[in-house]
C-alpha cells in the first residue's frame, strides 16, 4: 500500500481540446478560443471529462507495459477538477494504491487507487479515487 | 428540490464506442468486437468515460435549450458504472436537483444533482452526483 507510480505524461493541444469538446462537451470555454477569453476562465480549457479520458489512456498504456490485465471498473469516487487544463499543458498522471482485495468467487482482484494528474508547474489538476478490476493469474495456469 | 428532469437520449453505435476507446480507453472489450467476445463482458461495451461524455453532451444540450449558462464544474462524486453499455443501446439521461446555493462573492450559483443514465430496458447504467456552476442573472441586468 502507499506505493506511488507515475503512469505517463501527455501534452494537451488546442485542436485536441476543441475536438473532444465539440463532440462531448460543447461549451464555449471548451470549443471556441475566442469566446473563451470572455469567460471566467480567460481562455480555452479542456473539458473535465477530456482530462479524465487522457488519464484513462495513460493508465491503460501503463498497465499494458506491466502486462497487467485490466478488466473494467465499477466506478470512481470523488473526482475533482482542481485547476483548468489549458492548451500546451503537459499532464503527468500518478497513482497510489490505497487498498487491494481479491474476489472470492472470480479470478479477479480489486485495486482502489488515488489517481492524480498534475501539470508542468506541479499543480494537481485532477484528483480521483478509482476502483479497478484486474485479472489474476490462476495458480497452475500458464 | 427533488425535481427530476429528462435531459435527452442517445443511441450508442459500435463505431462510436470503438472510436472513443481507441483514442482514450484502448482495452480489447472497448475496441475489438471479436476479442470482446472472449472477455467477461461477452461482447463490446462502451468505456465508462464514454458513457460520462455522452451524459455530458446531453446535459449541455439540455441546458442550452433552457438558456441556462453552465460555467464549469468542480467535480463529481460517486460516479458508478452499474451495467455495461452495448452497441445499439439507447441511453436516456435524467437529473434530479439535490441542492442549490449561490456564491457569496461571484454571480454564480451551484447545483448539486444526481444524474442517471438508463438504457432501453430501464436499467440504470450510470449514476453520479455532480456539482455544476451556473451563471446568475444579476438584478437590474438585461
Written account of the structure:
Two copies of one chain form a homodimer. Chain A has 142 residues and is of the alpha+beta class. Chain A contains four helices and five strands; from the N terminus they run E-H-H-H-H-E-E-E-E. In chain A, strands 1-3-4-5-2 form a five-stranded antiparallel sheet, with helices on one face. Strand 2 of chain A pairs antiparallel with strand 2 of chain B.
Please tell me what the overall shape of chain A is.
elongated
Chain-averaged pLDDT of chain A: 92
Unreliable spans of chain A are none
Distance between termini of chain A? 28 Å
DSSP, total strands of chain A: 5
Report on the biggest sheet of chain A: 5 strands, antiparallel
Structural class of chain A: alpha+beta
User: What topology, given as strand order, has the largest sheet of chain A?
Assistant: 1-3-4-5-2
What topology does this entry show?
2 copies of one chain form a homodimer.
Chain A: E1 4-11, H1 14-24, H2 28-31, H3 33-37, H4 48-65, E2 75-81, E3 90-102, E4 108-118, E5 124-135
Antiparallel strand pairs in A: 1-3, 2-5, 3-4, 4-5
Please provide a brief summary of the model.
Two copies of one chain form a homodimer. With 142 residues, chain A is an alpha+beta fold.
Provide the descriptors you would attach to this structure in a database record:
homodimer; 142 residues; 5-stranded antiparallel sheet
Amino acid at each position: 500500500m502507499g506505493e506511488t507510480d507515475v503512469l505517463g505524461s501527455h501534452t494537451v493541444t488546442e485542436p485536441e481540446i476543441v475536438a473532444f469538446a465539440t463532440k462531448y462537451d460543447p461549451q464555449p470555454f471548451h470549443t471556441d478560443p475566442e469566446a473563451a477569453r470572455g469567460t471566467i476562465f480567460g481562455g480555452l480549457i479542456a473539458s473535465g471529462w477530456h482530462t479524465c479520458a487522457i488519464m484513462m489512456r495513460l493508465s491503460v498504456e501503463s498497465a499494458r507495459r506491466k502486462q497487467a490485465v485490466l478488466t473494467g471498473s465499477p466506478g470512481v469516487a470523488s473526482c475533482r477538477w482542481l485547476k483548468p487544463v489549458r492548451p500546451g499543458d503537459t499532464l503527468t498522471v500518478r497513482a497510489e494504491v490505497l487498498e487491494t482485495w481479491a474476489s472470492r468467487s472470480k479470478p479477479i482482484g480489486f485495486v482502489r487507487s488515488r489517481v492524480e494528474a498534475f501539470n508542468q508547474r506541479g499543480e494537481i489538476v485532477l484528483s480521483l479515487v478509482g476502483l479497478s478490476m484486474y485479472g489474476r493469474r490462476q495458480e497452475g495456469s500458464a
